[in-house]
Design brief:
alpha/beta; Flavocytochrome C3, Chain A, domain 1; seven-stranded mixed sheet
Length: 557
């Protein structure tokens, strides 16, 4: 059966659902997701979402903080859109029914976050993503938008240089189908599962980026991967920046608030790249506590912890065996967010007609080399809405696409080869080795030698992937098959990270080269564009950064 919609959205996180809600009601819109919508990774966001709501704050202040936080690699025209439209979008979420925490006067409460000059992070205790995603899912149900739930999209269908749909595997029935659309929006999330220690859900495997990359589109600024300063030592589970926003301290083994040596003014609320590097340096120089440092919330008091950080307390108790009311939490940095993605403009449009991208899979570049906490949820809402609006306009002017049955053939052949193999290597081993190698060689601190080793490792993993075989050769709900397809996405994306990191001979934001420790605006104030080549590896090109009013200066906290 052929299925055709006006607008098809791939991904059911906040960016995808916000886009779906924005699509005009007279159009046929559908969402397709490899998991149930409220299992999307947006549900895991904890700390908050930024907007200049207080009269003593301004969107211009928010924009400056964001530009500075990006280490001046963010495109300032896009940042201005993000920050100017943020207050209206937060108030819209409030009207949709998001249960924001409130002040005693009944206003939306806001807490300080790292790199911000004003407390502008709106929050729902420490479960902000959970609350916002459920709010948007309610809006999706209200509009009766159909969801292809537990379908895995494998590739884009392109006719005459225009995206006209997707090829997708129906997990429940174990078969491929082509789904057509006049406009397709990629909202597939990030790819930090490339790293072994990661706050990300196991579904964050860069599928949308891999599809776009294989279709010839550029991936921008892929070398910039953010490590969150505070994750639980053993598991990588996120401990929200909200914990530091509420006043938590970072301590080394001597009980010293060591951030005074790295960011004397902002301390624990310096930007994430600064804090992560400080923690890693403390550990490497022997001031750690059994391989980690300590996040101390005890001075906040029981009442404040229970009111503002209840989930953090539960996570610490359940996964670290620590009651944060009584003892500090052991933390280490972990891969968390990916600033790079599919190159788009401020309306989510890509270089391919009919294809849009929004959220973490896109790079509009509002985050540049480093994202401020609270800006990622905001990006999903602002640019999800904008992509939905522009996709509606394009779809209304278009015509129902003609779909060829042969569009399935390449993906079908790929799956048949996997299902028919009877021996080889198990994919879990390759995925584990990939994560460990990326963490050790392309982590917080990078050097030419380490990245060169990573390049060779990626070649090795790609060769090993050709020999993968599946223990489950059935078709109905074969999750091992999906993991094999996800591994190809991870390898595609990993090679762009490594190539970009190897070429960029400077330190900027989350990309820190020990052999090039200074930022070099003369040579490297530019975006990296990675294109797939016939040989399989990426070709790098570069494009200028858009600067409107904030000239690059030294970044201090």
């Amino acid at each position: 059966m052929r299925r055709v919609h006006d607008v098809l959205i791939i991904g059911a996180g906040l960016a995808g659902l916000r886009a779906a809600v924005e699509v005009s009601p007279d159009l046929d819109v559908a969402v397709i997701s490899k998991v149930h919508p409220i299992r999307s990774h947006s549900v895991a966001a904890q700390g908050g979402i930024n907007a200049a709501l207080n009269p003593s704050d301004s969107w211009e202040n928010h924009a400056f903080d964001t530009v500075k936080g990006s280490d001046y690699l963010g495109d300032q025209d896009a940042i201005e859109v993000l920050c100017r439209e943020a207050p209206g979008d937060i108030l819209q979420m409030d009207r949709f029914g998001a249960l924001f925490s409130r002040t005693d006067e009944g206003k939306i409460a806001q807490r300080p976050f790292g790199g911000a000059g004003y407390p502008r992070t709106c929050f729902v205790a420490d479960k902000t993503g959970h609350a916002l995603l459920h709010t948007m899912y309610e809006q999706l149900l209200k509009r009766r938008v159909p969801v292809y739930e537990e379908w895995y999209v494998t590739s884009l269908v392109i006719e005459n240089h225009r995206c006209v749909g997707v090829v997708a595997w129906d997990l429940l029935h174990g078969e491929f189908q082509v789904i057509g659309a006049q406009a397709v929006i990629l909202a597939t999330g990030g790819y930090a599962r490339i790293y072994h220690t990661s706050t990300n859900a196991v579904i964050n495997t860069g599928d949308g980026l891999s599809m776009a990359y294989r279709a010839g589109l550029p991936l921008m600024d892929m070398e910039f991967v953010q490590f969150h300063p505070t994750t639980l030592k053993a598991s990588g589970i996120l401990i929200s920046e909200g914990a530091r926003g509420e006043g938590g301290y970072l301590l080394n083994k001597s009980g010293e608030r060591f951030m005074k040596r790295y960011a004397s003014h902002a301390m624990e609320l310096a930007s994430r790249d600064v804090v992560s590097r400080a923690i890693r340096q403390e550990i490497e120089e022997g001031r750690d506590v059994d391989g980690c440092l300590l996040l101390d919330l005890r001075h906040l008091g029981k009442e404040r912890i229970l009111e503002r950080l209840p989930q953090i307390r539960e996570l610490a108790i359940n996964f670290a065996g620590v009651e944060p009311i009584e003892a500090p939490i052991p933390v280490v940095p972990g891969a968390h967010y990916t600033m790079g993605g599919i190159k788009t403009n401020v309306w989510g449009e890509t270089e391919l007609e009919g294809l849009f991208a929004a959220g973490e899979c896109a790079c509009v570049s509002v985050h540049g080399a480093n994202r401020l906490g609270g800006n990622s949820l905001l990006e999903t809402i602002v640019f999800g809405r904008r992509a939905g609006q522009r996709a509606s306009e394009k779809a209304r002017k278009g015509h129902k696409p003609e779909l060829r049955a042969s569009a399935i053939e390449s993906d079908r052949d790929r799956v048949e080869r996997l299902l028919k193999k009877t021996d080889g290597e198990r994919l879990g081993v390759i995925r584990e080795d990939l994560g460990v190698a990326m963490g050790e060689l392309v982590g917080i601190f990078r050097t030419q030698d380490r990245i060169a080793k990573a390049k060779e490792k990626i070649k090795e993993f790609k060769k090993r992937y050709e020999g993968v075989f599946l223990q489950d050769t059935g078709r109905i709900f074969n999750t091992e098959l999906i993991m094999a397809l996800e591994l190809q996405s991870l390898l595609d994306v990993a090679e762009t990270i490594v190539e970009g990191a190897f070429a960029r001979e400077e330190s900027r934001g989350a990309h820190y080269r020990l052999d090039f420790p200074q930022r070099d605006d003369q040579r490297w104030l530019k975006h990296t564009l990675a294109y797939q080549t016939d040989s399989g590896g990426p070709e790098l090109k570069y494009s200028p950064v858009t600067i409107t009013k904030y000239q690059p200066t030294e970044r201090k906290y």
